[in-house]
Every structure is written in C-alpha cells, then in structure tokens.
Amino acid sequence: MQIYLPIAEVSVNAFLLLGLGGMVGVLSGMFGVGGGFLMTPLLFFIGIPPAVAVATEANQIVASSFSGVLAHLKRKTVDLRMGLVLLVGGLIGAALGVQVFNALKAIGQVDLLVKLSYVLFLGIIGALMFVESLNAIRKSRKGGRPATRRRHNWVHNLPFKMKFRVSGLYISVIPPVIVGILVGILAAIMGVGGGFIMVPAMIYLLGMPTKVVVGTSLFQIIFVTAFTTMLHATTNFTVDVVLAVLLLVGGVIGAQIGTRIGVKMKAEQLRILLAILVLAVCGKLALDLLLQPSELYSVGPAITH
Amino acid sequence: MARLFALLLLLLPASLSAEEIVLGLSRDEVAITATFDGSDILIFGAIRRDGTATLEGNLGIIVTVAGPDKPITVRRKERRLGIWINVESVEIDVAPSFYAVATNAPMSEILAPSEDAATRISISRAIRSVGRSETGSAKFTEALMRIRAANGLYQDLEGAVSVDEETLFRTSIGLPSNLTEGNYTTEIYLTRGGQIVDLYSAIIPVKKVGLEQFLYRLAHDQPIIYGLMSLAIAIAAGWIASAVFGMIRR
C-alpha cells in the first residue's frame, strides 16, 4: 500500500516502513540503542530526503525509547540518578551540537563530516567492543571464573563523587556529564540518539553493569531526541509525522520484543552482536566514501546566502 | 474566441497557415491525497483549420508539462585523499521541478532550432544556469538532466503524441509520486515545417488536500504545536505498546 508523506513529499510503501520500524525497534530494545544510526541511512536508501529522515528519526526514537524504558522500569534496570546526570550533559551537548552543525553548514561539506564522524566513531567503538566481548566469551569457555571488568581506573579518582545505587557505583559525576555532553553533540550533528556511543561508554568508561546500561541509556535518549525533534520541527520544518507514525508503530512493537530477547541473552553475546552490527554499518559507510560513486553529481536545493 | 480568430486572420499575412488547437484535458487539477501514487494526465485535442489554410511542411504537435521553477545547486564529487567529496558546485537559477515533452515526431523534424531557442521547449533549453558559474557549467546541467530523468522528473517523450488524420491528437503524461506542489503549465505547440503556428496553454494546479494539506500547513504555520503533537504521538505509542505487551505477558 503506497502512502504519500506530506512533509517528505514522496510516496512510499506503508508496509515497508512498518517493517523497517519493527526491525530497528527489536535492535533498539535488545541493545538500548535508539537505532537511529541504522534507520537514518535506511531512510536515505528508500528515497526520503536526508533532512526529513534525520528529523523524523529523532521523533521515532522518542517512541521506541519510551516503550523500551517502560519495560526496563518494571524490571528495575534503570539507574534514574545516573540517567539524570547524563541528561544534564546531553542537553548541554545537543545545544552545542546544533551550533557546530550550523557552523559546518555555513562552510559546506556538512554531509562529509557527518559521514566521516559516523565511520570514525562506529569503527572505533565496534572494534573495541568486538575484541573485548570475544575475549570475555573465550575466558568463560575455558571454564574459569566469568570475566570481571577492571573495577578501578582513573575515572574513580575524580572529585564530586555521587552514589549510584542501582549501578552499584560510587563515582565522580564529571565522567557521566562529559559522556552526556559528547553524546549530545553527536546526537545533534549525526541525527541519532547516541546510544551506540553511550552504551559502550557506560560499560567501559563508567564501569556500569550491562543490564542497567541499556535501560539508563534509553531513559536519557528519550529526552535528548525529544529536544532534537522540537529543534528540527521549529527551525527546519522537517519532521514528517505520517512517516514517524508508520515507523513508530513498527518500532514500539519491535522494542518490546527486543527487550525480552535482550533479557534472555548473555551480556557477552549481546555485546558481540552489537559490535558486529556497528562494524557492518561502519563498513558500508566507509565503502560509500572510498568507492567511486556511480553518479558523481548530486542535486540539492539552492543555498540561500 | 472566433471573433478574435477572425481578427487575427485579417492581421496576419496570408502565407501563414490558419490552424488552431482545440484542447481537452482529462483533469484540471491534481489532488495529492494520503494514497497519492503518481497520476496520469491525458491531453487530447483537435486541430481546427480555416478553409484557406496552406498546409506546407510537416505537422508537429509538441506537448509540454512543466512544474514550478526552483533554483537548485548541483554538486560534483572528486576523489581527495582517497575519499569522494563534493569539490565543486553550480547554482542553477531556473530549473523546472518537473518537465515532460511529448512530440509526434523527432524534435529535429518539427521544431527549428531558432524556435526552440526562443521558446525554450526542449529540456536542455528549459534549464538556465547563472552566468557566474565557471566554464564547465554545461556538465552540471547535463548531470541535472540525467539525475532528474532517472527519477522520472524529466521526461523526453519523442513520438508519444499520436495524431489521427492530421486533426486529432492525444498523449498521456505520467506524473510521478514525488511531485512538488504548485501550478503545472501545460503547453501545446502546433508547428508547420519547424515554425510554431499556434500555442495553447493551460494551468493544472497540483496541491495537497485533506489530511496531507492540514499537516503540511500545521508544520509550517504552527511548528511548536506540530512538534509537541509529534512528541505526544510518540510517547502515547510507546506507552500503549508497553501496556499491551504487559497485558499479554501476564
């Protein structure tokens, strides 16, 4: 069934959008990532204008994250305190990110910088996670005691310490705020929730337990993406509510299924799957930059000086 | 009309052929609804002849449908430090968002180049780039035509007009689903031996209706309300899904 999207001004198959939403929703629930880093390129691929894809994706992530977080709240796997600390950083970061984005837009080449940052971040994080979880799986296979993460590093020697009961941590608020700011900047520039960066940062940098990480990440993502949605809706008029509804109907259902799958899986398996996914998207984007495109020219709206 | 025609006849030199187009369109507007998936416009008509008309040269019927003009930027990629990036861009001042040309015979046989230059009928003439672009701007307009043709936005339909008995003609123009709103100008040129002898012009408005129009207007006129509405829908959907799945689990 074809449906015409009023803001994107294109006609697309409604079932295709429902399916995409559902697929990305499952991943969102499983890994605690918003799924924007996957969905945004997929939307480009089916012909949605990039500006609309980025803005609408932010809106859709609000829905799937909210659905996911409710499931995690029932399970008490959300560290609300940590979430709020991250959120403070996130909102500061998102506001900064919009400034950076506009500055880059003025110079031109914003597309390239967005893609390069995708490749860089996805590549580093994917590789780190892959190696780490592979080692963890190997260790547990050998029959030894399960791998334990390093409990103390430089992060634990900073001032302004705070108790995060749910995570079982007593650490400084500085690292989570900085993580929040960085993720916020990336969220605004790359049009994603930033979960794919936040989840590993929480695990490896802050030392939070994997099960708590997912719910907490989703909690923070809701607010950052809601903020981004409003920003896009009021400045660029690029949020397509019809597209968002189609994606989020599939997305929220998928997120519920994903959350249940995630609970049943081992933390190492979950991490290695996410690592493979991140590396695959990274590889695809890197190839796009490295291989000669079939069409060297592209058409865009006129830049109003 | 007839009186005007008679008046024109008196004014025109006798050597000009006295032929006129009478036109019909299958639809006088295109409404973009939620299930809009492109639309075909049937353009048909007849050629009315004065008894004294001299019929020298090939008869040509050229039908053009042009969407609203929009300025655009065409960018070219080049390999720098191993990656493909945009290195050069050309601003194109006038480029129709949609353009279809249908003819009854190859363009070169029914339209003199001088007439084409004056009326900007063929696709390449309909696009105008600005003077300040560098010498290579022709490549950019070529690329624009190539890209838009691939998207079905520029259609070169040579021979798509069928003519019966040199009098009745008809053609069908397919509008794709990715249309820009606005007034679409339909023009029918009647040519004899490459010279234009009559022109008929009609406007087909393309506009969103119903829910599509409501959402579009809300997004542009009340962006804050629209944004909040989008968020409310997202939160509600997330909550409902969670509640429903919660019940299923129990």
How do you describe this structure in short?
The complex is a heterodimer of chains A (305) and B (250). Chain A is mostly helical and 305 residues long.
Describe the structure.
The complex is a heterodimer of chains A (305) and B (250). Chain A has 305 residues and is mainly alpha-helical. In chain A, 70% of the residues lie in helices and 7% in strands. Chain A has 10 helices and 5 strands; from the N terminus they run ββαααααββαααααβ. In chain A, helix 2 runs antiparallel to helix 3 and helix 7 (195-205) runs antiparallel to helix 8. Chain A is globular. Chain B is an alpha+beta fold and 250 residues long. Helices cover 31% and strands 39% of the residues of chain B. Chain B has 7 helices and 13 strands. Chain B has helices spanning 2-11, 107-110, 113-119, 123-126, 137-150, 210-221, 223-249; strands at residues 19-25, 30-32, 39-49, 59-66, 72-80, 83-94, 99-103, 128-129, 154-157, 162-164, 168-175, 182-192, 195-208. In chain B, the strands form 3 sheets. Chain B has a 6-stranded mixed β-sheet with strand order 2-13-12-4-7-9. In chain B, strands 1-3-11-10 form a 4-stranded antiparallel β-sheet, with no helix packed on it. Chain B has a 3-stranded antiparallel β-sheet with strand order 5-6-8. In chain B, helix 6 (210-221) packs across helix 7. Mean pLDDT of chain B is 79; it is low at 7-17 and 130-135. Chains A and B meet through strand 1, helix 3, helix 5, helix 8 and helix 9 of A and strand 5, strand 6, helix 5, helix 6 and helix 7 of B.
